[in-house]
């Protein structure tokens, strides 16, 4: 069984006032975690996210755009927000929701990102909220992996190696 472990730690100490910040990032067998522990004048905050079920949809035909999906669990003690996503493969990356407009399903950007409350799990999946990769510079192909970086307001940034598939998450989610 292939195991991948990446561990990064950053420590910030400021001399005056008392602020400590410790960030860690790890990736292992389809689970990626990012967390930041902050202590500002004795007030401790633990922001932590666990990412699973991530995938990028393979670029289809001449379509200049595609989408990425991820399930995000807030395992910390504070509400947090997915602020943005980034990918070297695309000119622009946006967070999108799916909304009913009359009787049609329409995509709409989420300019303020996506709030993920402490203890809550948010699924970005086919037919629902998703990461939109616009203006593809490289075309993700089935069987490859693609790095996508997610930035959370409190937990920090994490880069996820997402598998690329013609039918993303079809094993995990039936009915799509
Ligand atoms: Cu979209």
Automatic annotation (TrEMBL):
Domain of life: Bacteria
Family matches, as InterPro entries: LpqE-like (IPR007410), Lxx211020-like (IPR058248), PCuAC_sf (IPR036182)
Classification via Pfam families: PCuAC
Gene3D superfamilies: PCu(A)C copper chaperone (2.60.40.1890)
Matching PROSITE patterns: PROKAR_LIPOPROTEIN
Entries under SUPFAM superfamilies matching the protein: DR1885-like metal-binding protein
PANTHER family, A to Z: BLR7088 PROTEIN, COPPER CHAPERONE PCU(A)C
Protein name: Copper chaperone PCu(A)C
């Amino acid at each position: 069984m292939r195991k991948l472990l990446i561990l990064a730690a950053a420590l910030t100490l400021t001399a005056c006032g008392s602020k400590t910040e410790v960030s860690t990032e790890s990736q292992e067998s389809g689970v990626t975690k990012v967390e930041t522990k902050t202590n500002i004048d004795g007030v401790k905050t633990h922001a932590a996210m666990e990412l699973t079920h991530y995938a990028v949809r393979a670029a289809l035909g001449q379509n200049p755009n595609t989408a990425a999906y991820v399930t995000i669990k807030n395992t910390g003690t504070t509400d947090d927000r997915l602020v943005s996503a980034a990918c070297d493969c695309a000119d622009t990356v946006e967070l999108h929701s799916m909304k009913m407009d009359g009787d049609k399903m329409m995509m709409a950007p989420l300019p303020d990102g996506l709030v993920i409350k402490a203890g809550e799990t948010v699924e970005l999946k086919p037919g629902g909220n998703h990461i939109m990769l616009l203006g593809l510079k490289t075309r993700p192909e089935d069987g490859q992996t693609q790095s996508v970086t997610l930035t959370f307001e409190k937990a920090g940034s994490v880069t996820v190696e997402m598998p690329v598939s013609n039918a993303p998450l079809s094993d995990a989610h039936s009915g799509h």
